Input
Amino acid sequence: MENISNFNPVLLFSNKYDGFEYFSEEHKNLTPRYVKDIEIDYYLRSNGGGINVDGEFIEYKRGDIAIRFPGQLVYGVNPYSCYFLCIDSYGRTERADNYIIDNFNYDNNDTRRDISKKFDNEMFNSLPNRISCDKTDYAGKIIEALYLENLAIKKDSYREFKIKTLLFQLFNELFSINRKNNFDTNSIDNVIAYIHSHFTEEINVSELIDMSNMSKAVFHKKFKIATDYIPLEYITNLRIKKAQYCLLNGYSVSETAALCGWFDSVYFSSVFKKHTGITPSLYKNILSHS
Output
């Protein structure tokens, strides 16, 4: 594992790609190639476009950031437009020769020749191929600034310093967003585990929000992404599944209601019918004669 202090980013190549300009179904998929250095895209526009990474298609939307690492086999799937950066991790400016525009032909870029060593560090290893979050705008502005700075024909010491500073700012932002996303995921996982342990008890959604250390809006958004349900729907589904199990194993309707967190058997029957289409009594009778 490499020490983060060894990270010395160099901007090797930047471009603004527009896959809408000459888009056709015939040329929808770009030529497969191996990633040589760290590649970062900031998506300006997309209509179902994205990147196939090691056999898995990843769709990107406006505002998304794509990160690819040396050795990955990729090809673009149009239409999309984005800013595109190639970055070396070890300060090797000479690797920019691999990206001289006349030679940067994807058709000839599909071999493992000249692939850089991946920077082996826990923060880099945790970065996903796609970062999509409400707070990527700042990272996107940095990527745009790097693209514009790299357009300059003359590279003086100040410009090189500015590019280096922007690169560190970019990775700091990416690490920060990823760390926040991972924290949110862990928090939601803890909430879900708590629900599974206590769903037959009275659960107050406000207590779940407090447990997550998120705002109400963020909690509901993250919970829906993780489960496809809002919290009360998720709890109810767990109770219904347990109720079906209890009825299958000979418990009465009133016993089942109490065991599954409902203390009003009439209300339980109403909820059960809404979710299954039949009353608990009918469900029990059908099972007993099957």
Summary: The chain has nine helices and nine strands.
